[in-house]
Design brief:
Oligomer: heterodimer
Distance between the termini of chain B: 33 Å
Helix content of chain A: 10-25%
Shape of chain B: globular
Number of strands of chain B: 13
CATH architecture of the largest domain in chain B: Beta Barrel
Number of helices of chain B: 5
Number of domains of chain B: 2
CATH topology of the largest domain in chain B: Cyclophilin
Strand content of chain A: 25-35%
Largest sheet of chain B: 7 strands, mixed, barrel
CATH superfamily of the largest domain in chain B: Cyclophilin-like
Distance between the termini of chain A: 27 Å
CATH class of the largest domain in chain B: Mainly Beta
Order of helices and strands of chain B: EEHEEHEHHEEEEEEEEH
Shape of chain A: globular
Strand content of chain B: 25-35%
Helix content of chain B: 25-40%
Order of helices and strands of chain A: EEHEEEEEEEEEEEHEEEEEEEHEHE
Structural class of chain A: alpha+beta
Number of domains of chain A: 2
């Protein structure tokens, strides 16, 4: 079912779901939505499955013309969406009529927005996922970002009888300041005590070298004990590598699956989702968390995701 | 010779949902052998909550589901498995794969440089590169890229000072003592000495990559004519890379 015609693609718009799991040993990254929470919320607001594919919009949104009547939701960064030029709300179900044009204003908070359509976006499953992985050119729409003239296909599902919205206190606010909890290691012992203290006490700024693969940060130099190289080993999103120059690099969802710099720490899952909203010039502060504290936070996060469907407000 | 193995192996937390086991910080068959053996043993044990294993040169990363297990439980369980491996060496079945390669010319634009760098003839470089077996230490860099080791010192060559913006799919390269194969067109700094008609990566197939960590690979010099013939059978999907092993 044809749902949208892409009039303008936006800066970097891709199809993403929750990601492609189980192929890291073949060098295939997890990919999927950078901000997991917002993708799940966008799906639940149109009664989709949590893992259905959405559009991930980066900083400047696309312009889309509806080819059918449908329902959508827009979540994530504050990007002031419009239907036929009229402002509409984020974090709630929206009705779209055939011929309507969806456009976006300036991203005022955060970096990425998610647009779900009722039934989910229909692209071929590649290794069990619809997530676009641009570097190897597969997933989503022909393994690339959207371009003008693309047709977004959806699944045919009966329209919703009621709409939903998310209560205000659950809507995340992206201020450009991020507090990120890390579990130190696996190679924290390659840094001096001073190096670890610097890492945990100094603010770091996201540089222009920030994309779906990872973020290079600027800030106080983290001191290694001796060498700053390891024989390459595996990476996961959230891993924080520190190369010889002492400036941390946060690994994100499209990063290569192995790396040769020591990892001082790894951000916890809920904070990796939050980091999906970081953009150049934003400030990140790292704080240490124990394994058991991290486990508590993770359980709270999973509980929220599990309960989200139930606690949405009916309109 | 002093062993390069960490004894005991280092068990390290990797965030809130993974465990890293390091066996050393060196490229060696001994260290990688431990990684591959533990990888196989954990797969066989079908441990509750283990989602994915990522073997590399010298470590094994275990991604787990924190709802189904804890870091502590996993360490306990896997140390047990590691102990049985020390007491009895399990037989890990090693796949052997032959990779046909046209060396030199437009297929391997850096073969001349590698030969000159070491004062060898191109034929000698080809012979040295293709006469030994290489272990697939890990897959990384881009999807399906195998890191193979190690080439003889006589042909170990530093990377290009300025990486190429475009290396063709199938290109076989050398970087210091490592050799590898580009599964798709990509930028890269390895010295390209040849090219294979085989497809190393296809996301529409299961498994998506031709090679996996722990495989043994041998290169076989072929002519341009053979390259074209194999390329055709590969495109038709009827080439069997394991048959001549």
């Amino acid at each position: 079912m044809k749902v949208f015609n892409v009039l303008k693609p936006g800066l970097f718009t891709t199809v993403q779901d929750l990601g492609r799991y189980g192929y890291l040993k073949y060098g295939i990254p997890i990919s999927g939505a950078m901000d997991t929470f917002s993708l799940v919320a966008a799906n639940l607001l149109v009664e989709n499955n949590s893992n259905d594919a959405c559009l991930e919009i980066t900083l400047f949104g696309p312009e889309l013309q509806a080819l059918t009547k449908t329902q959508i939701a827009i979540t994530g960064g504050a990007i002031s969406p419009k239907i036929n030029g009229q402002n509409v709300s984020t974090w709630q179900t929206l009705e779209v009529q055939e011929g309507d044009v969806i456009s976006f204003g300036k991203m005022e908070g955060g970096c990425r927005a998610y647009l779900s359509i009722r039934g989910g976006i229909n692209t071929p499953l590649v290794l069990g996922s619809r997530a676009t992985y641009v570097r190897s050119g597969f997933g989503g729409i022909n393994g690339r970002q959207l371009k003008t003239g693309d047709i977004i296909e959806g699944f045919d599902r009966p329209p919703l009888k009621v709409g939903y919205s998310m209560s205000e206190h659950l809507v995340p606010q992206f201020t450009g300041q991020f507090k990120v909890h890390v579990i130190l290691g696996p190679q924290a012992d390659m840094f001096t005590e001073r190096g670890i203290n610097t890492f945990l006490s100094s603010p770091y700024e996201v540089t222009l070298e920030a994309d779906r693969m990872g973020y290079r940060l600027e800030g106080s130099i983290i001191e290694h004990k001796a060498k700053a190289d390891i024989i390459s080993d595996a990476l996961l999103p959230g891993a924080i590598q520190v190369p010889k120059n002492g400036k941390p690099i946060i690994i994100m969802r499209d990063a290569q699956t192995t790396g040769g710099y020591p990892k001082i720490g790894v951000a916890i899952i809920p904070d990796v989702s939050l980091l999906g909203q970081a953009k150049p010039n934003d400030i990140i502060k790292f704080s240490k968390i124990t394994m058991s504290e991290a486990r508590k936070k993770l359980f709270e996060y999973y509980k929220l995701l599990n309960n989200l469907r139930r606690i949405l407000l009916k309109k | 010779m002093k062993s390069e193995l960490y004894t005991p192996a280092r068990y390290l937390p990797f965030g809130d949902h993974a465990l890293l086991i390091e066996f050393g910080d060196i490229i060696s068959l001994e260290v990688n052998g431990k990684v591959i053996a533990l990888n196989e043993a954990i797969l066989k044990a079908e441990i509750q909550g283990v989602e994915e294993l990522i073997p590399t040169y010298r470590s094994l990363l275990i991604r787990y589901n924190p709802l189904k297990t804890t870091y502590g439980q996993l360490v306990f369980h896997i140390k047990d498995i590691e102990k049985t491996l020390i007491e009895s060496t399990i037989e890990v079945e090693i796949r052997k794969i032959t990779i046909p390669v046209v060396y030199g010319g437009e297929y391997g634009p850096d073969l001349t440089y590698v030969a000159k760098f070491h004062g060898l003839s191109e034929e000698q470089v080809v012979k040295l590169h293709s006469e030994r077996e290489y272990r697939v230490y890990m897959i990384g860099f881009v999807a399906g890229f195998p890191y193979l080791g190690e080439v003889p010192d006589e042909i170990a060559t530093p990377r290009l000072e300025t990486p190429r913006l475009k290396v063709l799919a199938g290109s076989v390269g050398i970087a210091e003592k490592q050799t590898g194969i580009y599964p798709c067109e990509a930028p890269g700094g390895w010295r390209i000495i040849g090219r294979t008609p085989l497809k190393l990566f296809n996301p529409l197939q299961q498994p998506p990559a031709l090679l996996k960590p722990g495989d043994d690979v041998k290169f076989k010099p072929i002519s341009e004519k053979e390259f074209k013939a194999i390329e055709e059978t590969v495109l038709k999907g009827i080439y069997l890379p394991f048959s001549e092993a």
